[in-house]
Design brief:
Helices cover 27% and strands 27% of the residues. It contains 8 helices and 14 strands.
Length: 271
């Protein structure tokens, strides 16, 4: 099998070589048309194969957002956080013919809204006049498939039941199983708008990306999450916890559960 291409400077639009390498990373074929079914397949394959993780924050390695994260996702076969995963996916979807807007959102923690531009999501239009669709592959508790943005009815998904509701100033609240996940704007943003929040996530001592260490993937039967050296596996209504002892066990856990090959291991906050 030939080695994947090395992604050079970001270009717009992306080359076919880069798009094909990305599709191979998530195990997807190039769709014939940018339809709703194709979008659903791409999102589901993405969330089941590319982990939501913040390892490089703790290794203090430089990171890029948007299309700049493609090298990390494709060639290094890593995951990332919302600015990386949704930002990169936005460029790939555009190259495939989808209409994509980047939207800002505020995370909701125990009912309290976080900072503006604290989260990035995508609004996606398709060629079959369906949608528009909410696509979010950069959120550990997000849906596996796109959500209809114009619907105000409950939408069932393997990850729960989601509901979009009107919020003040034209925003939308997203609920999962009755709990608000975030509040999103409806006006488009640029990737560059998120750069100052990215700096905060990378450098602020109280940023959640610095105070927490996680790597998570949904599975066909539940979800697997590694918090530092503690793995939590939820499958078919049961919960199993494994605590790893030593670097080799931890390195094998990243490899087995998430497909990550790590030369250097991140240390849990406080250790």
């Amino acid at each position: 099998m030939p080695a994947p291409p090395t992604l050079g400077p970001v270009t717009t639009p992306l080359t076919d070589e880069v798009v094909d390498a990305y599709l191979a990373r998530i195990g997807a074929a190039r769709p014939a048309r940018p339809t709703a079914d194709a979008l659903a397949d791409l999102q589901e394959r993405h969330v089941l194969s590319v982990p939501y993780e913040n390892i490089d924050f703790h290794l203090r390695r430089p990171q890029r957002i948007g299309a700049g994260a493609l090298d990390k996702i494709v060639n290094r076969r890593r995951g990332g956080t919302c600015f990386e995963l949704n930002g990169a996916l936005a460029e790939v979807l555009r190259a495939l013919g989808f209409a994509v807007d980047v939207l800002a959102a505020r995370m909701s923690d125990d009912g309290v809204l976080g900072p503006v531009l604290g989260h990035m999501v995508l609004r996606v239009g398709t060629a079959d006049a369906s949608g528009p669709w909410l696509v979010d592959v950069g959120y550990g508790r997000g849906s596996r498939r796109p959500l209809a943005l114009t619907s105000r009815q409950p939408q069932r998904d393997p990850q729960g039941t989601f509901l979009l509701a009107e919020a003040p100033l034209g925003d939308l609240d997203l609920f999962r199983d009755g709990t608000r996940q975030y509040r999103m704007e409806t006006r488009p943003r640029l990737i560059d708008d998120f750069e100052h929040m990215w700096w905060w996530y990378c450098n602020a001592a109280d940023a959640p990306t610095i105070t927490q260490l996680y790597c998570t993937l949904p599975t066909r039967a539940g979800r697997v999450t590694l918090y530092g050296d503690r793995l939590v596996l939820r499958e078919n209504g049961t919960r199993t916890t494994i605590v790893y002892d030593g670097d080799e066990e931890l390195r094998e856990a990243y490899r087995t559960w998430f497909g990550l090959e790590l030369d250097d291991l991140p240390r849990s906050p406080g250790r």
